[in-house]
Amino acid sequence: MFRLALTTLRHRTAAFLAIFVAVLLGSALLAAAGGLLETGLRLNAPPQRLAAAPVIVSGDPAYHPPNGSGSAALPERHRVDADLAQKLASTPGVTKVIADRSFPAVVTPGAGAEVLAGHGWASAALTPYALTAGRAPQTGQVVLDARLAGGSKPGDQVTVTVRGEPQQYTVAGIAVAQRTVDVPAVFFADSEAERLSPAPDALGVWPAVTGLELPAGVQAYTGDERGVAEYRGIATSLPLIIMSGVFGGMVAVVMALVVSATIGLSVRQRRRELALLRASGATPRQVAKMVIAETMVVGILGLVLGLLCGRVAGDWIFGLLTGGGIVPAQLRYDQGPLPFAGAALLTFIVLRVTVGIAAGRAAQIRPIQALAEAAVPAVALGRVRTLIGLGFAAVTVSIAVSTLFMSPTNAAAIGGPAGLTGSIAVAILAPLVIQRALIPRLTALVEKRGTSGVLAVINLRVRAVQFAAILIPITIATTIALGNIYAQTTQQKAAIEAATGDLAADVVITSTTGGIPAGLTKSVRSQPGVTAVSELVRSKGWIEEPYDKSHTSDAWPLLGLSGPVYEGKVTKGSLADLKDSTIALPPGTAKKLKVDVGSELGVRLGDNALVKVTVVALVEGPSGYEPLLLPAALLASHTTTGLPSLLLVKTEGTVDLAKWPGTTAGGRDVLSAGYDAGLGVDAYIAYLLAGIAVAYTAIASVNTIAVAVLDRRREFGLQRLTGATRKQVSRMLTLESLVIAALGLVIGLIAAAFTVLPIAVASRGWPIPSGPVWILLAWVGVVLLLVLPTTAITGRIAMRTKPMDALSSPVG
């Protein structure tokens, strides 16, 4: 049977090529997903500026809720206590401890980027940097990285914007890093760096001493793990683990559905052959073994080549993630043997199970029944298959209904799988879906196209099982594409509207030098026509005393204000009292925590500091997006830059910023643009996953269409012998393809609605998604461009053979 299986491969090139491509792509993408998972677990980021120190001590960059439920990356840099350096220096075996302090410092004119470029000169040894000219800096002096120096030399005057304030400094020296460092540095006198940033970001320890006694929340890193202390954003493996899990799961499900449909179509097309084998004495077991053997040969070849392409696919996807700012560019992509082993095992299981199901059903049928079924394929589905399909449909409805009553964050996390389970239900019940969709109005519309239309309707009815293989990838791709995109655009618009709708401002001022300094706020407030000014600080945090169980790893949005620009309804207290150590809460949260105006709370801020604040007001916010309001000065002191990010101005005129380099005045759209950048991470991930999955299913749909059309050579030959022209047969194929494409689009859109509409209700309060209509129209165009040209080309190839030769052909 194995030799017979190898012989069959030569005559079924199109069908087996489709299986080969589907398995190749699936295994390559699964290996890439496994690489993302390993990268997330290892979090290796070779250090640059801190590479000379064998041990780096810094604050834990992840927040761990008191209830022990998960973890989340801290939104701000978690600094360490200044006294820790002296304590570590007295530890037996430690010969040297150097504190690294970072603060916004931009040479003007210079790089003009928001980077923490200012450091104390002592921290130059952590890289190390070496002087090429001049000497160490004293108060009022700086040492410049050679890349920032330009034509400057020791003794020249330069303008350095430090913490948003432009100041004059004397160049004391020029230094060059002894290894590759992406971010150039500006070094200040150690006393000035300590004044600008009292708490160190990290401590470099020599030599590599083990067993250091560290306070809670502080960790020691060695080797490539030192990059966690150097680069922000490498805090927890959770985002990459979640992303790799979602991506890998989506690819596995899509591959299973597509491979199953392709194998099922291939086996179904050969019922005549299988019937003859059975009639000539072959047992069901032998027939099944032959089908399994030939499919597994092709599948394993695709699997091997896919694994070879897995590294390329992984590097490409990881490059997209780093290029889009999803993960730090310094994070190293790790893809050892385990991702390839896991991809190989999962792909093999999917392939073996799907071909086993298809081969078992084909081999168990009786010979006479198989010969009859070869002419008019049965559309009836087994009871088990029908129940499974209905079960997935019920799960889809349950997820969608439950999503309606969730918060926007939970709705986005839980509602996403509804589209995928809906696609699985359609894939299982696809033949019945096609027959039930062929209602009289639709068939009458197609039949009006003449004889070609009548034949197309007949073929759609009797070949519902074959056309189901084409319907499945179109439905899956439509569901994933439209579901992911419109879910993201809906969430994004709702979040932006919630974050900016209650903020009143005519002019919004931004800065590229690290933030808004106090001097700029004072200057703008004194300008003619200005009626109100408020600094704006955005961060995230958690209420721990009393403990708020509604926000564990998911943080509260924190909003820091210093002026009367918030327009949310105050139900108790006054926002005028929002000064010093105070906070304003949503009324619902206050009721749940059993606190009121005058109560004291313990809030964990973005740098992991626990601060005590007094409730001075209860303020309503957008449902599901309510922020906690804090004084801007308090919140800014616990951010990475230590400065407000924006300045909101109510004015009837313009604002003069001539004395403030790096600042820009814009309209209210700046608020949306700034917040949109924060939401872009989730959207980028969703679009990336959708794009890859859609590309995979698109290729699969092209393969499936080609296999299905090429298999109908005998049918086309018989039609031409009975008087039909090539044009009439081509028109029949076009009508069939249009109907299947339309069904795939409509059903996919319905499946996507089970994800998008509940998320719209949870996010915006009504079942109307947000997003441009051109995305839907563009996707319709993509599907038609996939289906119609493929059908036309393969139809032309199928009719290239003379009718009599086609009837005597051993294939199709």
What features would you describe in this structure?
InterPro entries: ABC3_permease_C, Macrolide_Exporter_MacB. This is ABC transporter permease. It is found in: Cell membrane. Residues 246-364, 688-797 form the ABC3 transporter permease C-terminal domain. The chain is α+β, with helices and mostly antiparallel strands and 812 residues long. The chain folds into four domains: 1-43 and 235-375, no CATH class; 55-229, no CATH class; 385-501 and 679-811, no CATH class; 506-666, no CATH class. The chain has 26 helices and 23 strands. The strands form four sheets. Strands 14, 15, 16, 17, 18, 19, 20, 21, 22 and 23 form a ten-stranded mixed beta sheet that branches. A hairpin with a 2-residue loop joins strand 9 (157-162) and strand 10 (165-177). The radius of gyration is 33 Å and the shape is elongated.
Low-confidence stretches: none
Q: How many domain modules?
A: 4
- Biggest β-sheet: count, sense, barrel? 10 strands, mixed
| Beta-strand percentage range | 15-25%
Shape: elongated
Rg (CA only): 33 Å
Cα end-to-end separation: 21 Å
How many β-strand runs? 23
Main location: membrane
InterPro entries: ABC3_permease_C, Macrolide_Exporter_MacB
Transmembrane segments: 240-267, 287-308, 340-363, 384-405, 411-434, 467-487, 684-710, 738-761, 773-794
Protein name: ABC transporter permease
